Amino acid sequence: MSSSAQRSATVVITASIVVLLIAMGVRATFGLLMQPMGLDKGFSRETFSLAFAIQNLVWGLGAPLFGALSDKYGSGRTIALGALLYAIGLLSMGYSDSAATLYLSAGVLVGLGQGGTTFGVILGVVARAVPPERRSLALGMASAGGSAGQFLMVPFAQQLIAQFDWHTALLLLSVAASFGMPLALLLQGRAAAGADQLHQSLSAAFRQALGHRSYHFLFWSFFVCGFHVSFITLHLPSFVVDGGLSAFDGALAIGLIGLFNVVGSYGCGWLGGRYSKKNLLGSIYALRAVFIALLLLFPLTPLVLYVFAAGIGLLWLGTVPLTSGLIGQIYGLRYTATLYGLVFLGHQIGSFIGVWLGGWTFERFGSYDLVWWLGIALALAAAALSWPIDERAMAARRADDAVRA
Is pLDDT of 2 > 60? Predict the structure, then answer.
C-alpha cells in the first residue's frame, strides 16, 4: 500500500471502530434498563424481552436492506441514516407508556438504526479499505471496537442509572448514538466489482450464494451466535440478581465480556488471516458450550460469574470477523455488505428467539435453566455445521470443477 492509501485505511478503520463502539456499546446497556424501567412503567420481563426480540429481528431484516443501500448508494449516507434512526428510537423509548410504543421505539426504530450502524455495513467498508493480506486482521480490529463499547458503555450507563435515573441514561445514550452521523462522513464510498464480478448483478450474486451449501452453514451457525449473545446480554444481569448477587456484579460481568472480547475479536481476526477460518469458527462454538456448562454446574459466586464472563468474552464476537471474512473470501467483495446482511439475518432470528424465550421461560418457570441448556445444545450443533464449510473462492471452485470435468 502507498503511504496515502495507508493513511486512508487508518482513518476508515478508526472511524469504523468508533461507530461500532457506540452502536454496540449502547445496545449492551439494555439489560441494565429492564428492571428499573419495568418497575416504573409496569412492563413485565416478557414484555420487555419481546420488545428487544423485535429489535433483534428488525435489525436482522434491516441488515440486508442497509447492505444493499450501501452497495448501491454508498456507505456514508447509509450509516448516517442508521445513526439518526438509532438516536430517535432511544429518545422515543424513554417516553414509551405502553407495550405498543415500547415495541415501536425500542423494537422497530432502534432495530433499524442498528441495521445501518453495525457490522453489515461497517465491515463492508473496512474490507474494501485494506488489501487481502490485512483484511482479516482489520475486520478483527473493527469488531473489537464493538466489544470495547460494551466494556466502556455498560459501567457508564450503570452509573447514570444509579446517580440519576434510567430516563436520563436513555437521553444521554441517544446523544451518543447521534455521533454516528458526523462520523459517516469518513466512511463514504461504494464497493467496486472484482475481475470475476464485472458483469454480475446483485440477484445473480444472491442466487450463487443461495445455491452454495456453505452459505447455508454460515447462516445457521450465525443463528446460534445470535441466540447466545442476545440472551446473555439482556438476561444475564437479571439472572445474576436472581441468583443472589448484586446489580453491580451483573453490570461488571457484561463489561468483562466486552473487555475480553477486545482480545478475542482482534485475536480471531489475526488467527483468521493465518489459519482456517471455518475451523476457528467450529472451535469457538464448541468452547461456548464448555463455559455455559461451567456457569450451570457450579454454585453462582462472583468468581464463577467472572470466569464465565472472561471465557465467553474471548469467544463473544470472534465469530464476526471470521464469518464476514469467509463471505468476502468465498463470494468476493462486490456485494459483501448485502450477502453478509442476509447471513446476519440468521444471527438476528436466533437473537429474537433467545431474547424472547428467555423472558417467556422465566415468566412460566421462574428460571432461565431451560434456555441455558438449550444454548449448550445449539453451540455443539453450530460447531458441527462449521466443519464442512468450503473455504475456496467461487472462481477457484469453478476452475477446480472444470478441471475435474
Answer: no
